[in-house]
Design a protein that fits this description.
30 residues
Length: 30
């Protein structure tokens, strides 16, 4: 599973949408 830091970088570069980022973060924190 990707780390939150990796996903944050992808989100910052616009590679994933805010919705995808929020969904992934919620899954990690669940």
């Amino acid at each position: 599973m990707l780390s939150l830091a990796q996903e944050k970088r992808r989100y910052a570069r616009g590679e994933i949408s805010r919705e995808e980022f929020e969904n992934m973060r919620r899954d990690l924190l669940a």
